[in-house]
Specification:
The chain is of the alpha+beta class. The chain is built from 2 helices and 6 strands.
Length: 76
């Protein structure tokens, strides 16, 4: 991890920002977790609006496509 990576430590999860759509932290962002997973911050999309039946505890998140591409590049 470089000194410029932003780290977020919660009660049960640590995340490192891989890519963001802005510089103030309150916009779509892709994070790598200490669990070996990815967390995406974005705009909530209702399952019914997308024609998807979502199980309890899941939700759809919309982010710019170039944000995901930037997150992939950050992992290389």
């Amino acid at each position: 991890m470089s000194a410029t990576e932003e780290v977020f430590q919660g009660e049960s999860l640590t995340m490192v920002a891989l890519a963001a759509s802005c510089t103030n932290g309150s916009c779509p962002t892709v994070y790598r977790t200490d669990r070996g997973t990815i967390v995406v911050q974005g705009y909530a999309v209702e399952g019914s609006a997308a024609g998807v039946d979502l199980p309890a505890g899941e939700l759809l998140v919309e982010v710019p496509a170039d944000l995901l591409a930037a997150a992939v590049r950050a992992q290389e």
